[in-house]
Design goal:
This protein is α+β, with helices and mostly antiparallel strands. It folds into 2 domains: about 90 residues, Beta-Lactamase (2-Layer Sandwich); about 60 residues, Arc Repressor Mutant, subunit A (Orthogonal Bundle), CATH 1.10.10. Helix content is about 45%, strand content about 20%. It has a 3-stranded antiparallel sheet with strand order 1-2-3, with helices on one face. A hairpin with a 5-residue loop joins strand 1 and strand 2. Helix 1 crosses helix 2, helix 5 crosses helix 6 and helix 6 crosses helix 7. The longest helix is centred in the N-terminal third of the chain and has 15 residues. The radius of gyration is 18 Å and the shape is globular.
């Protein structure tokens, strides 16, 4: 991925502006927005993160969706945080892909993850907190307070991956 490549931002939500303003505390919201619109990920993020964002864009521009992916990202002060990312293609009235839309949310509490409503929040938190060790589906099912069979079936239905494949993707970051 080349420096300066990538899709420009045409619109960002208030949360994006607030996050950007935290990195630039002397700017008001209107100035922040003017500094963001028309720029791309390489203008606003470190290259290693912009490369990841660009790969997601290419995947979405090919007609695919990124759904509920947990990923590690850099935060202010060099700390690492965890986010849940969704990205999808945007179509015009004729069905042609004209861009991408996405949302990334911080994964700080079990209730903040989209899967938490279906009972997966505790299991996803367990994965997040213990990903560096071996984790069995039985441990994850227990965290979600489900039988092993129900957990595996419902997890696959909700995330389109087995729990172990999901865990491998989490480990690869």
């Amino acid at each position: 991925m080349g420096e300066g490549s990538g899709c420009p931002y045409l619109w960002v939500n208030r949360a994006f502006l607030i996050n950007y303003a935290l990195e630039h505390p002397n700017l008001d919201e209107e100035i922040c927005e003017r500094q963001i619109l028309g720029k791309n990920d390489y203008d606003l993020s470190p290259a290693f993160l912009a490369d990841e964002f660009r790969l997601d864009d290419e995947y979405a521009l090919a007609g695919n969706r990124v759904v509920n992916r947990i990923e590690r990202v850099g935060e202010l002060g060099g700390a690492t945080g965890w986010n849940v990312t969704n990205k999808m293609p945007v179509f015009d009235a004729k069905g042609k892909i004209i861009g991408t839309a996405g949302i990334t949310r911080a994964l700080n509490k079990p209730t903040s993850h989209p899967g938490a409503a279906e009972g997966f929040g505790p299991a996803l938190e367990y994965m997040r907190d213990h990903y560096q060790r071996a984790i069995t589906n039985q441990q994850l099912a227990a965290a979600a307070k489900m039988s092993l069979r129900a957990f595996e079936r419902q997890f696959h239905a909700g995330f389109h991956l087995t729990p172990q494949k999901y865990l491998r993707k989490l480990r690869c970051g």
